[in-house]
Amino acid sequence: MTTNIGAGFRDADSELFDKLVHCLDFANELPFFKAYKTHSWESLKIEPGQVILDVACGTGSDLIRLAAEYPATEFIGVDRSENFIAIAKERAGPRPNIKFFLGDAQKLPLEDQTVHAARIDRSLQHVEAPAAVLQEMARVVKKGGRIVACEPDWETFILFNGELDDSGRIAGFFQRSIRNRLIGRELASLMNGCGVEELKTHVHAYWTSKLEEADVIFDVRKVADQCADADLIAREDVDNWWALSEQASKKGIFFAALNIVETSGVVENV
Questions:
Q1: How many angstroms separate the Cα of 91 from the Cα of each of 72, 84, 96, 181, 229?
Q2: What is the pTM of this model?
Q3: Reported confidence tier of residue 269, pLDDT bands at 50, 70, 90
Q4: Domain range summary for the chain, segments of one domain joined by +
């Protein structure tokens, strides 16, 4: 059984790399993703002269935009994927206030208290030790600096096309492909355990009635086929579910939704 996109981000430099890049680029152009990302960066309270870190920065799209918006602020992106970092550097070009480094989020290549704020977005769901990553972020942020984390709560993931049972099975299968599917609700507790205080949480609710959009974001067709491969749903029923979803999408009946939790706070325990 080949990997779906939910598990694929654990090792971005795999055969799914091109698909992962397409997913990220596609999502970055959607109004919902632009809005919640903007809110999360605003939570860092970025100022001129600061050094801002983006952990698991992917292709660097957020930092490239911010570097243009804040020319007097220095931005650093770290990611464990050689291919993501290569794309980020190519897309950033010779911009002087942005740097990208290859590195593990669980062992950041930075000295203690060297950045003013740090952010991670939709990556703790994939790592082996989310608490260790947050502890590393707290280590490299100066006392009084800010940390922001945005993560899905996958038990809020919904697929619906007018039919309940198979829709629920397919959504559940995708949920189980995520390593840390409850990480969204755990953020505040984990951050508090790392010495982060003044915690604030916002919930951003994503939804779409477009099957094509949901398929890029959630790899719906692939996940449905995996359900058939695992004998959770008969192959004929999977094909019927997909056809019904296509019809529902045209009528505005199709529904896919997921909550993304944003938690921010101030580093005090250093």
A1: 20, 11, 13, 31, 39
A2: 0.95
A3: low
A4: 5-267
